[in-house]
């Protein structure tokens, strides 16, 4: 039996796919679908979302996007959405799946040059993108600011409503009879070197669940249970409401050096996101966070100022040192990882499940937990005996994360595993 | 018996003072303390709040401010706040009453000149104010922006927490046994030309309450029940939260031509207000409203960006053509008005009650409902027969309001009663 720790979009997707494959699974989460998945905008945008220097992530995203339509159609059907028996229509209505593309817009000459570079790179990879003038951008999206000078259309990019997706996953799991235990995992049970289940809190729930495998899909909280280089990256996000849709597709751009995106939904909701803040487990909605979102969103689409504010939340993304998720068996027998999805949890959920089912061996290699073991072992030679795998990665993330948060999109610093020093190790141990 | 229509800070204050004076009163409101009083910041700031061209309002505010300490002490005692038997301390803790002054700050040369002019005028009136340099401002309030070039300190200005004040008024009324009917007044009952009570909705409450006098204190909704030139002026306001107080006193200023204020509370709350919008009965919190508040607040006090957002609401102020409230017997026998307090409801509540008790005949004249009767009669000669008193005022407000909202503080347009024309009359009738 498998225990899935974490009921966000990744944990629920893995549980659902494993259950469909005949596996006996149980999901444990104190508040399913209430973490990063609740805050997420739901862009399925591998092309426009990642920088062109992040090729592994781009490959992962493109593969997962290809899997989304069938994933969504099957999910919608299993969750009970079947309008007129049309699976695509069920996915559209039930999950908010739309595939009208993303328009990445630029204001300044530098932005335009970056778009050109990105377009050339995408074409080299055989990914369909289209360079547009400012006028062409405004023809597609008339509410765009007059100062938009050009754009890059990724017509294949899609998006879903993550809250509908997790609701559908919960419904599908319930229909399949998969147990959902609303409890917190306080620690992993061990039989010698092997992970053998989970211990639960608070009292009142079963004190423990024994399992053949534990799949750790606890997002930003994963490092509390196992030695994984995952840190919380705070994101504040805002949902606006309009009577008529302001946009026909996802629009994004870089304003004052920070990326901002606007995701429209059929019901008139317009999601504006998102800040990227390295503040630990802080989920306060702040005046400064709202200010930046509003300032940048109105720069792209001035008309947003007229919209009603429906919802403001902050979530914690599970960041990794190289921005690539950590998926697959860990070095510890019995422990499987499905975490570190950072900004891509919704996009990468179908692929994550597929990797754990052994369906994508080549892509699985890109996400392998072993890549951090190797770095640590090479650098220190102590990982095997002291278990500082996480500490090594922790050091990387410390230096990396700050740079990554500040770097303009499209120019992230290259991943560079740093040797752990005493300070970094101490920091990791203090957590 | 008197029926008070409206359970905001004005209606409740009037009810409480009338009851204390031995009058038999009943308050009617579908949702007491949930309107403009709930949104209000609670500045008791006649000196810094009004423009120096609004002398009547300044006189009213100064008089009401003088009455606030005893009003608050008596209210705190009647509501049951009596820490160590010290009434002033009870008012401070129970109602959030503080009298640490308001600091009005200026950025540009024009702003400084306006402050000088205002200071001279205040001194002429014998009101204590002090002109400060930028450095002196920052010595008082170290969190002020470095770009603040000067300020005007009104050391006598005070503030309360309006939510605590209405809660205390409701508690005091309950202790006195004053009935509070949670219902909506659908119309005024009439015996011939005389108002004789109120008709209530929904079914289930007593269908009507007969009364010797009806006191209309329904704020922005007053014009739905009687012919009064009151219109809704929307204000969006934001409550931030900090662990340590950012400011020691109220701070205000004009940024990009719009006024903004920050009101600190002992519990770390910092109120940032407020927009002024002429949009009818619209209480949506909008992206644009929030953006302007945040943009301007951080211009005055950059540190606000670090604070948590605790609450965002929009309220409707009851505006009048000349920004002065309408208090006293109306032209209709049996109908008394206590409405049109615009931005000054909290400040002017004690004075409003005093006027209705006959304690302030001279100030009562400034607020007399008859001032609108006269204008209308003079201009049209038909008010007596067609009852277009409200229509005349309606026309005034139409032109006036838009200008007033746009005018920089300190330079409001002079009140100018406009002759009602067909369009304006039609507009009023359509409401």
Structure overview:
The structure is a homodimer of 431-residue chains. With 431 residues, chain A is of the alpha/beta class. Helices cover 39% and strands 23% of the residues of chain A. Chain A contains 15 helices and 19 strands. An 8-stranded mixed sheet of chain A has the order 5-6-4-14-15-16-13-17, with helices on both faces. The first copy, chain A, has a 6-stranded mixed sheet with strand order 8-2-1-12-19-18, with helices on one face. A 3-stranded antiparallel sheet of chain A has the order 9-10-11, with no helix packed on it. In chain A, a hairpin with a 5-residue loop joins strand 18 (326-329) and strand 19 (335-339). In chain A, helix 4 packs across helix 10. The relative contact order of chain A is 0.16. At the A-B interface, helix 9 and strand 17 of A face helix 9 and strand 17 of B.
Write a compact overview of the structure shown.
The structure is a homodimer of 431-residue chains. Chain A is built from 15 helices and 19 strands.
- N-to-C span of chain A: 30 Å
Q: Decide which structural class fits the backbone of chain A.
A: alpha/beta
What general form of chain A does the structure show?
globular
> Are there runs of chain A of 5+ residues with pLDDT below 50, and where?
376-431
Radius of gyration of chain A: 21 Å
Helix fraction of chain A, binned, reads 25-40%
- Spatial ordering of strands, largest sheet of chain A: 5-6-4-14-15-16-13-17
Q: Largest sheet of chain A at a glance?
A: 8 strands, mixed
Number of helices of chain A: 15
Please state the average pLDDT score of chain A. 86
The count of DSSP E runs of length 2 or more, i.e. the number of strands of chain A, is 19
How would you describe the oligomerization state of the chains in this entry? homodimer
How much of the sequence lies in strands of chain A comes to 15-25%
Largest interface: A-B, 21 and 21 residues
